[in-house]
Design brief:
This protein is an alpha/beta fold. It has 9 helices and 5 strands, in the order E-H-E-H-H-E-H-H-E-H-H-E-H-H. The structure holds thymidine-5'-diphosphate.
Length: 214
């Protein structure tokens, strides 16, 4: 799609270090003069932050189809309110989770299937697809340990069993294999500065010449 901005999404299991990488990339790309906007899903705008609270709440019963629709609704609002305007204005949007999270967690983890989840997300995103997707690959035990080290109470998704995350992981891997031009898989067991270096390498062909040399 021709648009002045760039949409870079960051994906991976809980505890893979997406937020750390997003913050580091914001600094590194911003220092090269790129107009960065960092967002996260679900969230980024008021309606979607409220949906974030709903889907995280362990006290709620949420049917898998309702869950998929809630994430898609949050995404639709973010796209309309912030993503499209930012991309049209030439911003580089760093987005922590996007459609691939729904394909992996709801399509794979919840076993709704990729086709059904892709269909509702086609409605939600109206053709707004990432220019590049960085998949932070970390084994499930490491991801879990990092979450535990954080010490926060587990949210509704994080309370799932290992079999759920195994399906999420397998779905992510299949997505990356299926779309090699868009995906770059990064080894997220490495220290944060190495993950950042790999991420910058994975974006090299998108960077304007001056920014790539900086
Ligand atoms: P995450 O940003 O990883 O949460 P935190 O900031 O607490 O680390 O995402 C919240 C949870 O929502 C995470 O378990 C993954 C899940 N999720 C889905 O299941 N589907 C989606 O489409 C999205 C965007 C997130």
């Amino acid at each position: 799609m021709q648009r002045p901005g760039r949409l870079i999404t960051i994906e991976g299991l809980d505890g893979s270090g997406k937020t750390t990488l997003a913050a580091a990339l914001e600094g590194a790309l911003g220092a090269r003069g790129l107009p960065i906007l960092r967002l996260r899903e679900p969230g980024g705008v008021a309606l979607s932050e409220r949906i974030r609270a709903l889907v995280a709440d362990p006290a709620l019963t949420v049917d898998p189809r309702a869950e998929a629709l809630l994430f898609a609704a949050a995404r639709a609002q973010l796209r309309a309110e912030v993503l499209e305007p930012a991309l049209a204005a030439g911003r580089w949007v760093l987005l922590d989770r996007y459609v691939d999270s729904s394909l992996a967690y709801q399509g794979g983890g919840r076993e709704l299937g990729l086709d059904a989840v892709a269909a509702i997300n086609a409605l939600a995103t109206a053709g707004c697809t990432p220019d590049r997707t960085l998949l932070l690959r970390v084994d499930r035990a490491t991801g879990r340990r990092r979450l535990e080290d954080r010490g926060d109470a587990a949210d509704r998704m994080e309370r799932e069993q290992d079999a759920f995350f195994a399906r999420v992981e397998a779905a992510y891997d299949a997505l990356a294999v299926g779309e090699p031009a868009r995906f770059r898989v990064l080894d997220a067991h490495q220290p944060p500065d190495r993950v950042l270096a790999d991420a910058l390498g994975a974006l090299g062909d998108l960077l304007p010449d001056a920014a790539a040399e900086a």
